Amino acid sequence: MKTSFMFIMGILMVLLVVPAAAQDIIPNDTTKTMILHFHIKGNTITFLDARVIYGHSPDNLDIKDTFTGKMLGSDDRQIQKFGISDPRITWLDKGHLFTDDINFSVKVPATADLTGVGIYDTKTGKLLARADTTQAMKDFCTAHPQDPDCSSFPLWMIVAGAGALVLFAGTGWYFLKKKKA
Q1: Could you tell me whether strands 89-91 and 78-84 are parallel, antiparallel, or unpaired per DSSP bridges?
Q2: pLDDT higher for 52 or 6?
């Protein structure tokens, strides 16, 4: 009886420990990108929508261009600054094409503290558009509750808690059987 109990407890511990250990061994890239859609017509930029996906955003943080984007945190604190080329200009082999009424996208790293993105005129510093990104992150978390930026408890804590519960229950069962014998 004691041998079978120890065998069962050993199997349960292996089943609980292996997934927790594998989580640390297997790379789990949860890097996210926020894709923001805007519309520009004349000197007016309008925010359309935003969404979060898994993946890396382009490295455009040091570009000096027509527009300056700023990733904003709580209290409009600047997280990062990046350049945005004028989306109305399409460069051709000989010259360029200017389209005044066009939609465009901006991709930035999606972080837990990102609450908005502002687009500024680089020359004047004037705010041209501001996107609130909190709803996009909420929508992402609804679709991906297991993501570390979305869950309040990391997966390893849940697995460890379940393992401790099974261990305590098994120990209690063992001592109850031992007492009856």
Answers
A1: unpaired
A2: 52
Domain boundaries, the chain: 2-27+153-180, 32-143
Q: How far is CA 83 from the centre of its chain?
A: 22
In whole angstroms, what is the distance from residue 112 CA to residue 132 CA?
14
Residue type, 117: V
Domain 32-143 grouped into CATH 2.60.40? yes
pTM beyond 0.70: no
Could you count the other beta carbons within 10 Å of the beta carbon of residue 33? 16
Task: Please state the rounded mean pLDDT for residues 55-83.
Answer: 85
Nearest to 37 by CA among 103, 90, 121, 84: 103
Count of other CB atoms within 10 angstroms of residue 151: 14
With the C-alpha atoms ordered 12, 14, 15, 19, is the resulting torsion angle positive or negative?
A: positive
